[in-house]
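[SOLVED] Predicted holo structure with magnesium ion

Edit: marking solved, answer below. Original request kept for reference. I posted the sequence and ligand SMILES and asked for the 3D complex as structure tokens.
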Amino acid sequence: MRRRSTVWRLTALLATISVLVMAVLGIAIDQAVRHNFNALDRAELENKAALISDMVATVAPQQLGERLGEALGHHPDIAFWISDADGSTVFSTAPAALLEYAGQQSPTAQRRQQVWRLPDGNHYRVLYLRQPPTQGAPLRLLLAIDGARHAPFLRGFHQLLAACIVLAAVASSLLGGYVVRRTLRPLQSLADEARQITTEHLDRRLSVAAAPAELDHLAQTLNSMLARLQNDFVRLSEFSADLSHELRTPITNLLTQVHVVLAQPRDNAAYRDALGSCAEEMQRLSRIIADMLYLAQAETVDALPTRERVALGSLVDVLLEFYGLLAEDKQVQLRRDGDAELQGNRLMIHRAVANLLSNAIQHCPPGGVVQVRIGSSDGRCSIEVSNPGPQIAADALPRLFDRFYRADRSRGRGHGEGAGLGLAITRAIAQAHGGQVQVASTAQGTTFSLLLPLA
Ligand SMILES: Nc1ncnc2c1ncn2[C@@H]1O[C@H](COP(=O)(O)OP(=O)(O)O)[C@@H](O)[C@H]1O
Ligand SMILES: [Mg+2]
């Protein structure tokens, strides 16, 4: 089915409404006019009946016919028939068909108007009276107004009405169509503007100022959608650039080493050395890829794979034990405060806390204390991991959780340093639990807080 355009619909609606209004108005005027004509006819019949009664009462019967002829002869609209009691005509202007019909009716004593429908199709408004005798013999009076008397006027009126209806329909279609088209023009220009917005021109926006009030909200909504899309698009482009960069570096290292070793014959020990450092590089590559996969999965889960009761205190203790050697190595102390239990995925929470802890140990100066505080309030629990150390720049804070972001890139990639995916994974895990990660950094140190709902 083809969809009809709004212009077409509104134009048709306007035309229909104006035709209906004109028609109702026309019917009302028609009724009023007919009512008025009936009242006039009724009054006229009464007047003439009174006039005839007067004449019958005052004029001698021999002159009656003549006087009636003088008084009524020039009333072509009304048919008169005045007769004796025995039916012989005194005065008549009535057509034969009417007289024949009157022959079958009996006159009444009261003035009661009737409507007669003759067999030939004509109808008359009629007064048919028995005139009580004042002088001489009683008379019969018949006064009849032809029902078709007003037909020419009504016909003219109906033609005028029809013309007005057609005119109204045409005028309102043209005018309505024009107005609707004009009103919808801003939509067209919004569409034109939207067509200009491509991936190369994602910074363009729809011009809100030009849009009429009703479209203003739509334009603003579309603009904020564009802003979000642009933001995501930029991040996606950066991400693919970062990803290629991260993968290219270890592969370049591998190739270089292999080429150097193959350039000339070497002894077994040299080959073993070369293979060893190749394995290290490949391990790094495989970790990045595994992390990327994990991140992609964690970011797209709608529901956690499994939820179980997780005791945070013992989970953290296991991790502190695991990182004990590394901490000792860096002359860093590890401590835990508090405990809480929540419903969540143990493996994921384990990984999230491990990422925070390994960062804290890595950035903690020798002799410092890495502190893990567990608490719960308002239906959620918090795991805060803090370490002393230099303050992180305020503008870097929101970017820490981006993939591949490392605050101090100039340091290069020392061994043991990650690819910058740890915090991104921690955030994805928090979000999969319906929670979040926050960071606060002062001159005294840095605290990461993992906030998770209890259930
Ligand atoms: N406890 C911390 N103190 C100072 N800086 C930190 C801390 N934790 C993370 N960062 C900064 O955030 C960056 C991103 O961390 P992360 O995503 O774990 O990546 P990676 O550990 O692989 O560098 C780190 O490179 C570091 O600059
Ligand atoms: Mg890390």
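OP edit: The first strand starts at residue 78 and ends at 84. Thanks to everyone who chimed in.
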